[in-house]
Design brief:
globular; mainly alpha
C-alpha cells in the first residue's frame, strides 16, 4: 500500500481534521491491507505460507481492534462494520 492510498483512507475515515490514528482509521487501513494481500498476492501464490501467516496475524489484530471499539463505542462499531462491509 502506498502513501496515496493510505492518505485517502485516512481522509475518508477520520473523525476530525487532525485525526491520523484513531481506531476507525487503523481498522480501515488493516482491512485494506488484508484485502490487498488476499486478492493480489495469495491468489497468485497460493502456497506462500509466510504470506498466509501474515494475513492471519493481520486478521487477528483487526479482530482485537474491533472488539475494543465494540466495548467502547457500539455506534462506532456498527458504523465501521457497515462502511467496510466486514460482517453481516
Amino acid at each position: 500500500m502506498n502513501n496515496e492510498v493510505k492518505n485517502s483512507i485516512i481522509k475518508e475515515y477520520r473523525l476530525h481534521d487532525t485525526d491520523r490514528g484513531s481506531i476507525e482509521i487503523q481498522i480501515a487501513v488493516l482491512t485494506n491491507r488484508i484485502n490487498d494481500l488476499n486478492q493480489n498476492h495469495l491468489s497468485k501464490f497460493p502456497k506462500d505460507m509466510s504470506a498466509r501467516h501474515g494475513l492471519i496475524k493481520l486478521v487477528g489484530q483487526r479482530r482485537s481492534f474491533l472488539a475494543y471499539l465494540k466495548r467502547n463505542s457500539e455506534a462506532g462499531y456498527q458504523s465501521i462494520i457497515e462502511r467496510l462491509h466486514i460482517r453481516k
